[in-house]
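Changelog-linked ticket: s-citryldethia Coenzyme A example.
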Amino acid sequence: MTFAPSLDLGLVNTIAAESKMSFIDGTKGVLEYVGIDIDSLARNSTFEETTYLLWNSRLPNQSELDEFTRQIQAEYDPPNEIWDLIKRIPTDAVPMHALRTLVSALSLFDPEADDPSPEANHRKSIRILAQCPALIAGYDRHRKGKDFVEPDSSLGFAENFVTLLTGDKPTETMQKAMDVCLILHADHGFNASTFAALVTISTLSDMYSAVTTAIGTLKGPLHGGANEAVMHMLKEIGEMDKVEPFIKGKLERKEKIMGFGHRVYKAIDPRATYLKTFTKQLAEDTGNLDLYEMSNKIETIMKAAVGARGIHPNVDFYSATTYYSLGLDIDLFTPLFVMSRISGWAGHCMEYLQHNSLIRPRCDYVGPHEMPYVAMEER
Ligand code: SDX
């Protein structure tokens, strides 16, 4: 390979590796997981089946899906030391800080934490994915002074999470909504948090370290943290009449509108399209139609103002109203993104390790040369 470096700020024009997991056509607004359109998966699949697809490059047959589901269910319950640790976390902690800390702590109680074999990495991926719901729900119940709920290994992934969080089995609508959100957020090429995980795993560090890196990266409001920012924006606007002055004011001040724009999509994010339709009924059923209608008006204003520049709603814009309509606290929105994206992060780490190459770009040094070391008394 010839060495011909060039500066590419933000790696906008850089392809860092090949992958068979997600295909994104930013011009047409297409997302496929292993060639299957995201819309078909959201309508027909489950999060467990979608994760199997991403990790194995094909859909499972029934016995394979049953076995994979059983493996996940068998790992729902974190070690007792983790439940004890949750009780030590300050009740006013930011949930994303709590979640990043708890996922990292899981490694302390996993005897194969540093086993680099593909088989151990697969088992650890299942463990981290399976236990994430208990970490999120456990912290939320701790901060609210509620007792923990025991994980139920007879329940599916989405159903188990809602039960751990609320103490009650979800309605059919809530379970389907949660499963759809988990499917839609599972993977998305080399987004910032996935790439961060790959940088970590490329040094032959471990899966817990890679996922912890990714959680810290997803937290930022330019990335996974946008869904919480969208909800805060909708709350700040408060009512339909204030939508236009609020949005136009921000645009005039060159401030970004959370939930819009994307590094790859220059057409509308197909996940936003699906969520918009899906969320309308949910918002109506839960008395949150005002949020949906305000979102719709924001979309109309943004389309007229910046649509021609390829700035459209992204997955975070309508996931905000979806999660709020499901009764989730706003500061749990990004932890839910983590819960789903562990599927993509772990899948990409296992895929990348098949042809590993240490990720280490160059920087273009623009500082001085031949500078003298000046003694302290002369400075
Ligand atoms: C996710 O990468 C992924 O795949 C991520 C994700 C995934 O599944 O992992 O899809 C999930 O992170 C979705 C994105 C969530 N973030 C937000 O909603 C935050 C708001 N969006 C922007 O910050 C922005 O759109 C980014 C960061 C998402 C992408 O920005 P880029 O590609 O770095 O482009 P840019 O910031 O340089 O913007 C280009 C122009 C600028 O105008 P000019 O300076 O050229 O005049 O477009 C404008 C920007 O000001 N612009 C916006 C805007 N986003 C871009 N203007 C107003 N509102 C916005 N939201």
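Closing comment: Example verified and attached. The chain has 16 helices and three strands. The pocket of s-citryldethia Coenzyme A is lined by residues 10, 188, 191, 222-224, 226, 256-264, 306, 311, 314-316 (CB under 6 Å).
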